[in-house]
Write a structure and sequence with these properties.
Radius of gyration: 19 Å
Number of strands: 14
CATH architecture of the largest domain: Beta Barrel
Structural class: mainly beta
CATH class of the largest domain: Mainly Beta
CATH topology of the largest domain: Elongation Factor Tu (Ef-tu), domain 3
CATH superfamily of the largest domain: YaeB-like
Strand content: 25-35%
Largest sheet: 6 strands, antiparallel, barrel
Helix content: 10-25%
Strand order of the largest sheet: 3-4-9-8-5-10
Order of helices and strands: EEEEEEEEEEHEHHEEE
C-alpha cells in the first residue's frame, strides 16, 4: 500500500508498513493525545514485506514506542495554515506548526504508546498497544522505540497546552454496567473502564459545550454508547451492540 498523488511529478511515495486495528471506529471521542486513556487499546498489523520476524527482533525489550502514521481521514480535506486548537476553546487560531492538528501539509502524525506484547500469527508480527489515540484503520509508516533517557525532557514547556483538563464524573445506568460485564467476559476488553475514562475527558467539541445539547453518542469496537450531560457530571444511559453486530 502507498499513499501519494498519481502524477508524473511524483518522485516518491511513503510505504505503508502496517495498519492499526483500534477500539475507535470513528473520530469522535478519541483522546486528543496518546497515553491519556490506558484502556484504549489497538493491535498494529505489519504488512508484507515488512511483516518479517527479524524486523521486530529486540522490540519486546521496550515498554513504549513512537508510532509514525497518516491522518488518512483528513487527506481529502486538505491542510490549513492556521487552526483552532481545543486547548484554546476553539476560539483562537494558531499556526498549524504550533499545534497537533491532523490538517497538516503532509498529514503526518506521531504517537507515543505502550507496547503490551509482540506476538506472531503465522510468523507475522502483531504489536499489541495501549494508551492509543489512533483511529481504526490508521496507516502506519514507521515504528521507533521510545528512549526515556532522551525522549523525556524534564525542562520542556508546553506553551498554551498547560496540562490535562480536570475530569468530569461519569456514572453508568445499571443495565449499562450489566452489558459491560457480559461484554468484558466475552471479549476480555475493558469496556466500562474505557467508557468512563473517555467520557471523563469530555470529548465534546468546544463549540458544543455551550449550545445546550445534553445527549451524545459514540462507538467503541462494535458497541454504541449514549450519555447525557448534566451540571453535576454525566450518565451513560445506553450501551448496546451496533446494528448488525453480534448479540450478547
Amino acid at each position: 500500500m502507498k499513499y501519494g498523488p498519481d502524477t508524473e511529478t511524483t518522485t516518491h511515495c511513503v510505504d505503508i508498513i502496517g495498519i492499526v486495528h483500534s477500539c475507535f471506529p470513528e473520530k469522535f471521542a478519541i483522546p486528543r493525545q496518546p497515553g491519556m486513556v490506558a484502556a484504549a487499546t489497538a493491535t498494529l498489523e505489519l504488512l508484507p514485506p515488512f511483516n518479517r520476524e527479524e524486523m521486530v527482533r529486540g522490540l519486546e525489550a521496550f515498554s513504549h514506542l513512537w508510532i509514525h502514521f497518516l491522518f488518512h481521514h483528513s487527506i481529502a480535506e486538505g491542510w490549513r495554515p492556521t487552526v483552532r486548537p481545543p486547548w484554546l476553546g476553539g476560539r483562537q487560531r494558531v499556526g498549524v506548526f504550533a499545534c497537533r492538528s491532523p490538517h497538516r501539509p503532509n498529514h503526518l502524525g506521531l504517537s507515543a504508546v505502550r507496547l503490551e506484547a509482540v506476538r506472531f500469527v503465522n510468523h507475522a508480527p502483531m504489536l499489541d498497544l495501549s494508551g492509543v489515540d489512533l483511529l481504526d484503520g490508521t496507516p502506519v509508516i514507521d515504528i521507533k522505540p521510545y528512549l526515556p533517557y532522551s525522549d523525556s525532557i524534564a525542562t520542556a514547556t508546553g506553551g498554551y497546552a498547560t496540562g490535562a483538563s480536570p475530569g468530569i464524573p461519569v456514572e453508568l445506568e445499571p443495565q449499562c454496567r450489566s452489558f459491560c460485564r457480559k461484554y468484558e467476559q466475552l471479549t476480555g476488553r475493558r469496556l466500562e473502564q474505557l467508557i468512563c475514562d473517555l467520557i471523563g475527558l469530555d470529548p465534546r467539541p468546544a463549540s458544543q459545550r455551550t449550545q445546550g445539547k445534553a445527549e451524545f453518542g459514540m462507538r467503541l469496537w462494535d458497541v454504541n454508547i449514549r450519555w447525557r450531560i448534566a451540571s453535576e457530571g454525566c450518565t451513560v444511559v445506553a450501551v448496546d451492540y451496533c446494528p448488525g453486530g453480534k448479540q450478547a
